[in-house]
């Protein structure tokens, strides 16, 4: 081979500075943000929220190893989260027992490293369950994952000593040796624990995407048939990825075990599996950062929006459907589209269109909010009235209906306009 | 005499009642360029599928360098040094051209299912990828998504993935299908160069390509090989004319391929 | 003896209910390839519509109009939702219906409240039909049986007498081509989806007062519907029927059996006081469908009577 | 001070147990309004914050954390011993980790006996009779019924259901060794939609009576299936008064269904108490006055605050220990040794001869003089070794 | 019968058709020739509505641009695309049945008559069409379109990827179809076939028609051939 080729090739490959800005920098920024948060003295409410976000970030990233990277749609990923978490809670109890009892291995095991147990157990579960499930991709895989999830969830109420039945299993995180001077009692100390593992998890999952196995998992997603003819067994690729995804879900489970100090069989059921699917998808499965965005947004909605509106799940459903229909790249895809668009030559045209779309979307959404909130209050039947910005919007008032119908109509109109312009623009 | 690269004896394949391959015998020497021609539906692609592990033979034997491979999984056969391309482009559409080729390279370089190495740091892999890309002249398109390549380039990429693993025996299924004249010429040159010294089995309907490239030609009709021989023999064979070439044989004789 | 007769009867009726619920999905899934996650939500809508209609007028009107309404909702969903995501493939469609399930659940909660509504069996059918071993058997259950059988016959007729199935299947691989052959694909898709949903709605009318009409009914039934369709086999109505019956009977029998693992496997040395030994067969009932699902997918991916793999 | 005293009410507000939780929330709200009209608790206005936990322990802890983060110091919960168990644990940990910010747990219905025995805890006070105490009363009634020869026990598969079953087996064995227990079964909590197979099993077993601790939808659906299938024997319940059960039973169940309760609205009520009940039913026309113990708890809380001269949970807890309260049904005592209330209990029967019906029906719950069990008679031995903060 | 005037078409930003004009009379067989990539397939797609057309297209006097593809088909316009698009999971017979537009009105051919005409297909009648070989697929596609009794068929590259002998058979088949009175617009590269069966020839270059005339004229015009067809 000529030196010339190597030269050309080097030019094609990203330069070191590109590598740094595109790969390392985002991770570093992420870590710095995480480390700086405590400097703002967040309240325990905020800390709780952040901790849950951290757990969900790792969980959603692990899910995306399957869905986004591996093309495997799973409805049972919470199984590995749950099993990892259960293992960690059991370990936590053993640490407690050992430190009050006769010592031994568990007495010297720091709670700080429980996520490692979670990882091991999640990976083990992945190894066992993945064996039958990874033989085929696509719908059979999805259906098996659903079946397995329901099976394990049902078993949750059967094997009391493992899952604890309705009561679940709980533990106390303040036992065993302390690490880094963290007693893990107050939530502010748990924050450091979560921060540490969020960064470790994120980094490891990112690193995984850059390994030969990670790359071949993408290849298998795109074209399993061809993968066979370049020397790989697609089942094996899926299986290995599945084990890792299970492991990282278990890691997140271990983080959750320390945060909540309790696990109930509900943790392995369909509901949290659905939630992580929503997180990854809404965030954007084709982007590494997508699930992170999704986890942050959905956790916020789940914990905070549920205080403002009883119908938050409805908003979530709508958000999800809008993403599926109009933005398959998810929130991250929208952001990436904006950034690319800013660089495109027809920038001005695009900005105009975006503005129209956002205005239309916001208007339609505002109308929808009024509709939903008025409906919720009507449905509760306590005679409560929706009063945004000091307005008084009872069900019967004409103003209410005007505020519902006019923005929706105007919004839809604007959206159509934008759509039409886009078509024309392409012509 | 050395063992043939590929030796097929009494190979049969039926799908239900339909007997598609009905007793094929074929030996291909190391370093030979062998073309398989035959009417549509004769079973050429099926034969390729049998050799490369896509289908299980109903009976008969296929030996690669003396080792039986009939019914072995495709990825195992591939690891033994046999690689194939597809009649309909079968590439990794969501990946870049470079990544496509790299997928073909990874296993052969011993990086199988490794999950502790960063692909970016695998120097040999990068060098090999670049080498292949250069060979097929796709270096300048290395970072384009494969799906956005023009049709002819996708066909070329198909070939690139096939040769990337460094297999000694290469099967190409209609590599120039759908290409224009100039593209076909380029592809032929490229294939010749890239498979220098390797064993090549090729299926083609473009007689220009076939007669230009092949050392020997086999004619497959209704699942049976009715003739094998040097291009000149095949051209003259009346059975081949009757079953396959039709009027085109005359055109070929006039040196004016379709 | 009593147990066997009761379980048979209950099992058959529960099985028929499952069949009613899943027949619409079989239709949609096998014709359009859409694994409609919201199918059970349409079932729920059927129950709620029926509740509202029968509250205002009569159950018999509800029996007719609730399914039609649900069908219209389904058609609308196809027209303004699914159609947009169709181009992005089956996974996108599945995800769309997944979101739709959330949406319908929440809307139902807003309109009809978070707790069960009082959807009652019509007076005309609210009497014990016969007495068996000292227990009375409600007439409504037998009514259910007849509705389900009528549905089976009607569906079988539709599937075997129309070309719509072929056209849709063709459109899955090459939608444009089907248009060039002169078929109005979008309209057929919309109709099939609507009819499938209407069938779910009918199941809701019947199942809502047989069981309970509450916002959790969709979540509870959703996964089981998949089990029926997948175990029965893609594209096979008879398969779905068989699978539903099998599931109904197995689950009912499990509940009726008064034994635990120790009773069954005591000869293996399983102690009746151990955790595993204490597990009762009855408590296995909720696991049975999913066990079946996983096993079938592993052993026979085309299902009991399916004509192609999932 | 102007600051209100917040009580976080963590119970199911949706799902199969939603009606039970919602009724509880309504009564807490009413009790708060009533006490506020009298000047509140320790001079502070009481505010109830309803939080939905879907009967899930983990979700409850999430809600607990949220409540605590908002400065709530009092937690009320009742629906589900599974949840109560998690709350007791979590509150204990919280109180240990955050001295000076303790939280008090007011349990108005979770009756797993463990909470006032081996798992008793200083921060937990129970205002309902526990499962053992209630079962004593139930089996005392069975003792007098010679016609009952076979009993079927059915319950929900969790600590409370198990506690009921265990107590029933133990007590029947002591009081009526001749009775055969023909079935002792647990079913999943809140998941069964059709109880007919269970009921047919019970009928086939030849049971003369059913004992069940079921509540919420599990109660309503089970009793509906029993009536529909023509089961005729007595059904002895803890929670026959669950919302919706009366409608499901209808006149067919008159005299057949019994429930062990601390109150029913057909007792001899004082005028004040009548007005109180009327006030509730006027404020919540969809509900009936049911959780009398909530109103007891609210009044005792106010008394404790007055006694302690503070609304600090720790002070209130100490004040509550051993406190007696003259309630409408008699004298109530909060046991000091295990934080279990002692109050009169009533075996009540579903009847069509009522002055106050429930669920807008001419049917309701009555109890005669013989059905009253005095507070002292309900006392049980406790294994509690209470650890008190200094 | 079909009249195309000033037809433009775009793929994204690229302007592929730049004002195509052509006309097909009833019963005519027209060959559309041109080098790879000049836009012949795009012309076909634009007529069929698969690519949004800009310009005027009338069929039997009625404008058809902007119509849904099934409406176009019902007007009597058949299309055999380059990609063939057989329905792989269905049997050959089912593929043919799908060609029928209206089950209630009997067409010129029944499925059985069609299979009789093509013994190759009859042999595979109950096999999944996906496993047919290239030539068989091509035949099936044409037969399927014929089942709908079109008055004009647009056939795009029917001989691509076929064995030399089959190429001739396909040519004969098209000539055969033309004899039944159906008009044909044939997009073809192989001159031998195109010139053999066409009444008239259009030559396309860079998204425009650059020459038109009879096959006889075409044979004379070495220059057209050199400039627009050879590489
Ligand atoms: N999986 C299968 N099941 C049934 N029949 C099959 C299957 N695969 C191929 N066939 C049949 O085998 C015959 C040979 O097909 P094959 O694809 O090998 O032909 P070919 O020689 O490659 O033709 P072409 O040159 O057109 O590509 C065809 O008639 C086809 O219908
Ligand atoms: N889907 C598409 N997106 C973008 N460009 C396209 C698309 N399809 C075709 N083109 C481009 O449009 C031009 C005309 O394509 P067309 O398929 O009409 O050519 P053709 O004359 O039929 O040639 P061929 O011999 O390749 O069939 C080509 O340059 C082609 O690259
Ligand atoms: C509200 C109550 C019915 C709760 C039940 N007694 C329990 O302890 O779980
Ligand atoms: Mg072939
Ligand atoms: Mg073309």
UniProtKB/TrEMBL annotation, chain A:
One of its GO terms (molecular function) is branched-chain amino acid transmembrane transporter activity. The chain crosses the membrane at residues 20-40, 46-66, 78-95, 107-129, 141-164, 190-208, 239-256, 288-306, 312-339, 351-378, 398-418. It comes from the Bacteria. It is found in: Cell membrane. The keyword Magnesium does not apply. InterPro entries: ABC_transp_permease, LivM-like. The keyword Membrane applies. One of its GO terms (cellular component) is plasma membrane. Its main location: membrane. It is a multi-pass membrane protein. Keywords: Cell membrane, Membrane, Transmembrane, Transmembrane helix. This is Branched-chain amino acid ABC transporter permease. It comes from Thalassobius vesicularis.
Automatic annotation (TrEMBL), chain B:
InterPro entries: AAA+_ATPase, ABC_AA/LPS_Transport, ABC_transporter-like_ATP-bd, BCA_ABC_TP_C, P-loop_NTPase. This is ABC transporter ATP-binding protein. PROSITE patterns: ABC_TRANSPORTER_2 (PS50893). It comes from Thalassobius vesicularis. Keywords: ATP-binding, Nucleotide-binding, Transport. Residues 6-247 form the ABC transporter domain. Transmembrane segments: none annotated. Pfam families: ABC_tran, BCA_ABC_TP_C. GO terms for molecular function: ATP binding; ATP hydrolysis activity. GO terms for cellular component: plasma membrane. CDD domains: ABC_Mj1267_LivG_branched. It comes from the Bacteria.
From TrEMBL, chain C:
One of its GO terms (molecular function) is transmembrane transporter activity. It is a multi-pass membrane protein. This is Branched-chain amino acid ABC transporter permease. One of its GO terms (biological process) is amino acid transport. The keyword Transport applies. Keywords: Amino-acid transport, Cell membrane, Membrane, Transmembrane, Transmembrane helix, Transport. It comes from Thalassobius vesicularis. Signal peptide: none annotated. InterPro entries: ABC_transp_permease, BCAA_transport_permease. Belongs to the binding-protein-dependent transport system permease family. LivHM subfamily. It comes from the Bacteria. CDD domains: TM_PBP1_LivH_like. The chain crosses the membrane at residues 12-38, 58-77, 139-159, 188-212, 224-257, 277-299.
TrEMBL record, chain E:
PROSITE patterns: ABC_TRANSPORTER_1, ABC_TRANSPORTER_2. Keywords: Amino-acid transport, ATP-binding, Nucleotide-binding, Transport. Residues 2-231 form the ABC transporter domain. One of its GO terms (biological process) is L-amino acid transport. One of its GO terms (molecular function) is ATP binding. The keyword Nucleotide-binding applies. It comes from the Bacteria. Belongs to the ABC transporter superfamily. This is ABC transporter ATP-binding protein. It comes from Thalassobius vesicularis. The lineage of its organism: Bacteria, Pseudomonadati, Pseudomonadota, Alphaproteobacteria, Rhodobacterales.
């Amino acid at each position: 081979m000529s030196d010339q080729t190597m030269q050309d090739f080097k030019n094609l490959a990203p330069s070191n500075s590109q590598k740094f800005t595109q790969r390392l920098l985002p991770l570093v920024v992420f870590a710095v943000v995480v480390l700086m948060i405590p400097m703002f003295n967040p309240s325990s409410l905020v800390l709780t929220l952040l901790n849950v976000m951290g757990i969900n970030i790792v969980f959603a990233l692990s899910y995306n190893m399957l869905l986004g990277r591996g093309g495997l749609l799973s409805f049972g990923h919470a199984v590995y989260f749950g099993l990892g978490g259960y293992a960690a809670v059991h370990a936590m109890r053993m640490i407690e027992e050992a430190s009050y009892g006769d010592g031994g291995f568990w007495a010297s095991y720091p709670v700080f490293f429980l996520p490692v147990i979670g990882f091991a157990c999640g990976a083990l579960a992945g190894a066992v369950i993945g064996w039958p499930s990874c033989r085929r991709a696509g719908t059979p895989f999805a259906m098996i994952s659903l079946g397995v999830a329901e099976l394990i969830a049902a078993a949750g109420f059967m094997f009391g000593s493992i899952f604890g039945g309705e009561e679940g299993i709980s533990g106390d995180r303040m036992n065993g040796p302390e690490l880094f001077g963290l007693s893990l009692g107050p939530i502010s100390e748990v924050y450091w624990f979560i921060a540490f593992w969020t960064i470790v998890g994120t980094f490891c999952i990112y690193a995984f995407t850059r390994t030969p196995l990670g790359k071949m998992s993408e290849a298998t997603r795109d074209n399993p048939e061809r993968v066979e003819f370049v020397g790989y067994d697609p089942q094996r690729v899926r299986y290995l990825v599945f084990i890792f995804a299970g492991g990282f879900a278990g890691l997140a489970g271990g983080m959750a075990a320390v945060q909540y100090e309790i696990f109930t069989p509900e943790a392995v059921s369909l509901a949290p599996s659905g939630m992580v699917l929503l997180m990854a998808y809404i965030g954007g499965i084709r982007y590494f950062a997508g699930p992170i965005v999704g986890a942050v947004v959905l956790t916020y909605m789940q914990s905070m929006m549920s205080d403002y509106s009883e119908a938050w799940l409805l908003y979530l459903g709508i958000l999800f459907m809008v993403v599926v229909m109009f933005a398959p790249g998810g929130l991250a895809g929208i952001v990436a589209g904006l950034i690319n668009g800013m660089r495109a030559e027809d920038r001005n045209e695009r900005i105009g269109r975006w503005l129209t779309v956002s205005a239309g979307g916001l208007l339609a959404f505002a109308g929808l909010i009024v509709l939903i909130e008025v409906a919720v209050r009507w449905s509760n039947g306590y005679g409560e009235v929706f009063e945004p910005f000091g307005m008084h919007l009872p069900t019967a008032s004409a103003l209410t209906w005007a505020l519902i119908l006019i923005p929706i109509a105007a919004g839809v109109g604007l959206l159509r306009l934008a759509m039409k312009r886009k078509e024309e623009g392409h012509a | 005499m050395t063992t043939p690269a590929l030796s097929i004896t009494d190979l049969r394949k039926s799908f239900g009642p339909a007997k598609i391959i009905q007793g094929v015998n074929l030996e291909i020497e190391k370093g030979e360029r062998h073309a398989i021609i035959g009417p549509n539906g004769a079973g050429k692609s099926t034969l390729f599928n049998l050799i490369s592990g896509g289908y299980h033979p109903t009976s008969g034997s296929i030996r690669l360098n003396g080792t039986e491979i009939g019914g072995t999984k495709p990825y195992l056969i591939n690891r033994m040094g046999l690689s194939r391309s597809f009649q309909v482009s079968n590439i990794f559409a969501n990946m870049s051209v470079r990544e496509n080729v790299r997928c073909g390279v990874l296993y052969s370089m011993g990086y199988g299912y490794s999950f502790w190495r960063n692909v970016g740091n695998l120097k040999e892999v990068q060098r090999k990828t670049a080498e292949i890309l250069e060979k097929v002249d796709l270096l300048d398109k290395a970072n384009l998504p494969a799906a956005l390549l023009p049709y002819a380039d996708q066909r070329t990429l198909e070939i690139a993935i096939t040769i990337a693993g460094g297999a000694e025996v290469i099967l190409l299924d209609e590599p120039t299908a759908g290409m224009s004249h100039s593209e076909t010429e380029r592809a032929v040159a490229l294939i010749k160069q890239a498979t220098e010294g390797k064993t090549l089995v090729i299926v083609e309907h473009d007689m220009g390509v076939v007669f230009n490239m092949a050392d020997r030609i086999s004619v497959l009709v209704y699942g049976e090989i009715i003739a094998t021989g040097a291009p000149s023999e095949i051209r003259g064979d009346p059975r081949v004319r009757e079953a396959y070439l039709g009027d085109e044989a005359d055109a070929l004789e006039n040196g004016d391929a379709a | 003896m009593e147990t066997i007769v009761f379980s048979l009867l209950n099992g058959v009726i529960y099985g028929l209910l499952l069949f009613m619920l899943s027949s619409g999905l079989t239709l949609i899934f096998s014709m359009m390839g859409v694994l409609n996650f919201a199918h059970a939500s349409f079932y729920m809508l059927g129950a709620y519509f029926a509740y509202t209609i029968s509250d205002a007028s009569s159950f018999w009107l509800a029996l007719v109009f609730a399914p039609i309404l649900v069908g219209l909702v389904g058609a609308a969903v196809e027209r303004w939702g699914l159609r947009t995501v169709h181009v992005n493939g089956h996974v996108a469609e599945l995800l769309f219906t997944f979101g739709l399930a959330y949406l319908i659940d929440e809307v139902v909660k807003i309109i009809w409240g978070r707790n069960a509504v009082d959807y009652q069996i019509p007076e005309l059918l609210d009497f014990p039909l016969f007495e068996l071993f000292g227990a009375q058997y409600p007439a409504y259950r037998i009514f259910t049986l007849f509705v389900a059988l009528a549905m089976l016959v009607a569906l079988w007729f539709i599937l075997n007498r129309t070309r719509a199935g072929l056209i849709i299947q063709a459109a899955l691989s090459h939608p444009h081509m089907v248009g060039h052959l002169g078929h109005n694909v979008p309209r057929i898709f919309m109709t099939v989806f609507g009819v499938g949903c209407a069938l779910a709605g009918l199941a809701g009318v019947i199942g809502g007062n047989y069981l309970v009409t509450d916002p959790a009914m969709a979540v509870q039934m959703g996964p089981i519907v998949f089990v029926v369709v997948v175990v029965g086999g893609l594209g096979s109505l008879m398969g779905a029927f068989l699978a539903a019956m099998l599931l109904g009977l197995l689950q009912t029998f499990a509940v009726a059996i008064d034994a635990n693992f120790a009773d069954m496997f005591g000869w293996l040395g399983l102690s009746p006081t151990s955790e595993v030994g204490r597990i009762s067969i009855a408590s296995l009932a909720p696991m049975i469908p999913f066990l079946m699902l996983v096993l079938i997918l592993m052993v026979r991916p085309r299902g009991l009577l399916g004509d192609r793999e999932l | 001070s102007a600051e209100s005293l917040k009580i976080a009410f963590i119970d199911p507000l949706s799902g199969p147990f939603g009606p039970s939780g919602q009724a509880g929330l309504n009564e807490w709200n009413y009790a708060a309004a009533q006490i506020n009209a009298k000047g509140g608790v320790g001079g502070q206005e009481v505010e109830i914050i309803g939080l939905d936990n879907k009967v899930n322990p983990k979700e409850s802890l999430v809600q607990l954390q949220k409540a605590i983060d908002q400065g709530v110091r009092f937690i009320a919960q009742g629906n589900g011993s599974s949840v109560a168990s998690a709350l007791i644990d979590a509150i204990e940990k919280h109180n240990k980790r955050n001295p000076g910010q303790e939280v008090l747990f007011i349990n108005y219905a979770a009756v797993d006996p463990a909470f006032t025995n081996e798992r008793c805890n200083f921060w937990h006070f129970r205002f309902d009779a526990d499962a053992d105490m209630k079962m004593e009363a139930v089996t005392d009634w069975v003792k007098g019924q010679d016609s009952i020869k076979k009993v079927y026990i059915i319950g929900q598969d969790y600590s409370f259901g198990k506690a009921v079953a265990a107590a029933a087996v133990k007590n029947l064995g002591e009081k009526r060794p001749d009775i055969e227990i023909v079935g002792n079964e647990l079913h999943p909590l809140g998941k069964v939609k059709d109880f007919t197979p269970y009921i047919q099993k019970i009928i086939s077993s030849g049971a003369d009576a059913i004992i069940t601790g079921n509540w919420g939808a599990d109660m309503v659906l089970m009793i509906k299936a029993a009536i529909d299938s023509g089961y005729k024997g007595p059904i002895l319940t803890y929670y026959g008064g669950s919302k919706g059960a009366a409608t499901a039973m209808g006149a067919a169940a008159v005299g057949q269904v019994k429930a062990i309760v601390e109150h029913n609205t057909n007792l001899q009520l004082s005028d004040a108490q009548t007005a109180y009940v009327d006030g509730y039913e006027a404020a919540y026309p969809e509900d009936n006055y049911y959780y009398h113990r909530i109103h007891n708890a609210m009044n005792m809380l106010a008394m404790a605050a007055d006694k302690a001269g503070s609304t600090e949970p720790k002070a209130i807890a100490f004040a509550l220990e051993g406190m007696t309260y003259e309630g409408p049904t008699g004298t109530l005592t909060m046991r000091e040794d295990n934080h279990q209330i002692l109050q009169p209990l009533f075996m009540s029967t579903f009847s069509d001869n009522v002055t106050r019906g429930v669920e807008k029906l001419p049917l309701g719950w009555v109890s005669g003089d013989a059905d009253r069990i005095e507070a002292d008679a309900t006392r049980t031995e406790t294994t509690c070794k209470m650890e008190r903060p200094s | 019968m079909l009249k195309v005037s000033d037809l433009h078409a775009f793929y994204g930003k690229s302007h592929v058709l730049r004002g195509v004009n052509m006309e097909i009379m009833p019963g005519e067989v027209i060959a559309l020739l041109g080098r790879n990539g000049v836009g012949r397939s795009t012309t076909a797609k634009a007529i069929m509505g698969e690519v949004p057309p800009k310009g005027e297209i009338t069929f039997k006097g009625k404008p058809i641009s902007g119509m849904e593809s099934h409406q176009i088909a019902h007007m009597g316009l058949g299309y055999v695309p380059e990609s063939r698009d057989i329905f792989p999971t269905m049997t050959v017979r089912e593929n043919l049945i799908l060609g029928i537009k209206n089950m209630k009105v009997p067409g010129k051919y029944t499925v059985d008559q069609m299979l009789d005409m093509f013994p190759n297909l009859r042999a595979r009648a109950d096999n999944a069409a996906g496993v047919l070989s290239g030539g068989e697929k091509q035949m099936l596609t044409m037969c399927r379109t014929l089942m709908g009794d079109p008055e004009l068929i647009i056939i795009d590259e029917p001989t691509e990827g076929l064995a030399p002998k089959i190429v001739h058979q396909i040519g004969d088949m098209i000539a055969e179809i033309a004899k039944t009175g159906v008009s044909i617009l044939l997009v073809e590269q192989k001159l031998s076939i195109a010139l053999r069966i066409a009444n008239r020839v259009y030559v396309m270059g860079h998204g425009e028609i650059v020459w038109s005339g009879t096959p006889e004229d075409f044979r004379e015009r070495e220059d057209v051939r050199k400039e627009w067809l050879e590489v």
